[in-house]
Write a structure and sequence with these properties.
This protein is an alpha+beta fold. It is built from twelve helices and twelve strands. It has four domains: 64 residues, Winged helix-like DNA-binding domain superfamily/Winged helix DNA-binding domain (Arc Repressor Mutant, subunit A), CATH 1.10.10; 49 residues; 93 residues, SH3 type barrels (Roll); 81 residues, 2-Layer Sandwich (Alpha-Beta Plaits).
Length: 347
């Protein structure tokens, strides 16, 4: 939000209108927001067009003031059903990227009111439910999968055995799996189902985009009492899960050091700045598949120090990449090289 001045100005204007029970003039709003009166008028008209309960009344001497229509308590007459309050409470984690902005502060006030309406027992139950929907990022458009996702959420909540038709990237046809669904994960715009596969007798991750059908069975399974979705993903650099205990050490060069330090990329991450301006970063993971892709995005500014296996894999990737760019572009590279030889001979 801090990168959108227009949104910030509009939000500030709404805050003024919400707080001023007796209204504010256009001149007062312009002075407080630092926005031109003509822009204020345009914003007010836009607010009315989209349905905000704005009202203009005249004071003495023809002075016009603007207010948000208020209820008996002097605040906008807004109420929630329990269903809506519960949805807001469960969705509060999706607002975490707004932390530090005025929107976040207002959201916290709203959550405080929701919390006051629900008992400690109810809140504990909702927090337990929310813990089964782990988020690492915002999801894409899953409107066409809404019914399918809803069935999976029911299966997770009620611990019902579920059959899914799933087509992996390498498969030519969907395969049916018998699963014990335990939770869902949002990661880089996609949703993944975390479930025990009875065929494989292990926990696996299934990308929702690749699930074509879901059948929730009436019989239940015994959900592991100690299963925690966040703990399960603690060793992943995203959603790829392994069984190893791998210590990864990387040297980042000065051009990317600040970028790497700005964010906590993994819970186990440790940084050690070096005298030459580089940064040694350490990670404790169960799989290196995703961190390898991430490190490759830094090009020559990220060097794997250990483990040796990952360093060798990075070296192979870099060599293959260099080899690819040494050849002419396109599928007719061989023909182009052959033609080049003929031209040189003709000369």
């Amino acid at each position: 939000m801090s990168h959108d001045p227009q949104l910030l100005r509009q939000w500030s204007l709404l805050k003024i209108l919400s707080a001023r029970h007796y209204g504010a003039t256009i001149e007062e709003m312009a002075q407080e927001t630092g926005v031109d009166p003509r822009t204020i008028r345009r914003y007010l008209k836009m607010f009315q067009n989209v349905g905000f309960p704005l009202e203009a009344t005249k004071r003495a001497h023809g002075c016009k003031v603007w207010t948000l229509k208020a209820g008996a308590s002097g605040t906008p007459d807004i109420s929630f059903t329990f269903e809506e309050a519960i949805a807001l409470w469960l969705g509060r984690r999706f607002l975490e990227p707004l932390a530090g902005t005025p929107l976040w502060q207002a959201a916290q006030k709203a959550f405080k009111k929701v919390r006051a309406c629900l008992s400690h027992t109810a809140l504990a139950y909702l927090d337990k439910m929310a813990g089964r929907l782990h988020q690492t990022g915002l999801a894409g458009d899953y409107s066409e999968k809404a019914e399918l996702i809803d069935r999976l959420m029911v299966a997770i909540e009620d611990a019902h055995v579920t059959f899914v038709n799933y087509q992996s990237l390498s498969a030519t046809e969907p395969v049916q799996y018998e699963l014990e669904p335990l939770g869902m994960v949002y990661h880089r715009g996609s949703i993944y189902l975390v479930a025990t596969s009875r065929e494989h007798r292990e926990l696996r991750h299934f990308k929702i985009d690749r699930i074509s059908d879901v059948a929730v069975e009436p019989f239940k399974f015994e959900r592991p009492a100690d299963f925690d979705l966040s703990a399960h993903l603690a060793g992943s650099f995203g959603v790829f899960q392994g069984n190893d205990d791998i210590q990864v050490r990387v040297r980042f060069r000065p051009p990317v050091v600040r970028y790497v330090q700005e964010k906590k990329w993994h819970a186990s991450e440790q940084h050690t700045p070096q005298p030459d301006g580089t940064l040694i970063a350490e990670y404790r993971l169960t799989s290196v598949e995703e961190i390898k892709r991430w490190l490759l995005s830094f090009g020559r500014h990220a060097e794997v120090l250990e483990p040796a296996r990952l360093r060798s894999e990075m070296q192979a990737e870099v060599q293959a990449l260099a080899s690819m760019y040494e050849e002419p572009a396109g599928k007719d590279a061989k023909t182009a090289r052959a033609n080049g030889k003929l031209v040189r001979k003709a000369k």
